[in-house]
Amino acid sequence: MTNIKLNKEYTNWLNEVKSKIRTAQIKSALAANRELILFYWELGKMISVKLNESNWGDKVLFNLSKDLKSEFPESKGFSERNLKYAKFFYEFYNSTIGQQSVAQLQKADKQQLDKTDKLSQQLVDQIPWGHNIQIFTKAKSVEEAQFYIQQTIENGWSRDVLALQLKSGLYQRHGKSITNFKQTLPAPQSDLAQQTIKDPYSFDFLTMTKPYNEKDVEQQLIEHMSKFLLELGKGFAFVGRQYHIEVDESDYYIDLLFYHTKLKCYVVIELKNTRFIPEYAGKLNFYLSAVDSLIKAEDDKPTIGILLCRDRKKIETEFALRGISKPMGVSEFTLTESLPDNLKGDLPTVEELESELEKRELNK
After folding, report:
1. Tens-digit pLDDT profile for residues 287-310
2. Bridge partners of 330?
3. Which of 26, 50, 84, 278 could form an SS bridge with 320, CB 3.0 to 4.6 Å?
């Protein structure tokens, strides 16, 4: 940055950035979240365009950060790292796909208003900057980013909860269960029900030691109910575990019974710590019929079943559900498995492995 022409060009550009900041401060003192997000969009555009036009490189952001902090000491958000986030924010949504989705944030570009996706404009400025950073730095596409923004708004996720959902790959698991909803439920409830369940369910908050059975998993899920409900998603209200029903003077016990406040129906969840077999669908169909007859109120929608198993084959599962009259889905579930205590002592520690490797190196 020693060249006089470059210095003058940088100074002029810096003044433009400062002017943009002052304009934003006059409007809302950078307090309103919507104005703040719009400001970061425009700041990110200024940085991205300028760096593409010039040969300065990203190192100029260090100077920009220092100068902005000096000029606006009372304002936060001008660290070098946050300037990079603003640049990435603009570039992420201004990609070939993103240009059709978020360019509407730039209200000055009136010619593009009719071409852009209003959904993104309505969503992206409804969540805090910190949430936005989590999403656009981890999402692989604009569609995935839109999904997490929508879910954050609907569920009121904190930044930590959002980070967990991103880490667990909720977007990839959302609505992926094998179901018969289209054949057994009217539209649009069938679509809503499909989007309500996922595959696989991640119970990584459970640590199980073999051998264990369905009852052990049930007990752990109940003991971690808040995390279990978070994984199930918004709308699930717990009714009971091993819920007792009586049919023709015989006793039956449903593994887990919920009520879904959005779908307006009961949800029966059956756990199987094995691979799916077609007979499981028949048993779940029986439970759904019983709940519809014995528990469901007149204004409730048909009861839905979710069968959670450790493994399943796609074609076999689809065949099993094809003749079932009640709405149900089959999903896998995963959890963390630990070694039994009596086996832990038989395995070498990290230190022992390192020592053995050192010995082998010396003997070469």
Report:
1. 999 999 999 999 999 999 999 999
2. 178, 307
3. 278
Other beta carbons within 10 angstroms of residue 193's beta carbon come to 27
The stretches of 141-224 forming alpha helices (DSSP H) are: 142-155, 159-167, 170-173, 181-184, 189-196, 214-223
Check: pTM over 0.85? Answer yes or no.
Answer: no
Identify the residue whose tokens are 């970061």: 40
What tokens were used for 345? 């002592």
* Nearest residue to 83 via CA among 71, 70, 68: 68
pLDDT at 171 over 80: yes
Query: Rounded mean pLDDT of the chain?
Result: 84
| CA separation for the pair 22, 20 (Å, rounded) | 5
Q: What three-state secondary structure class fits 222?
A: helix
What kind and span of H or E run contains 334? strand 328-338
The DSSP 8-state label assigned to residue 174 in this structure reads B
Identify which of 131, 207, 198, 193 has the alpha carbon closest to the alpha carbon of residue 166: 131
C-alpha to C-alpha distance for 24 and 148, rounded to whole angstroms:
27
Distance CA 136, CA 146 (A): 10
CA 65 to chain centre: 32
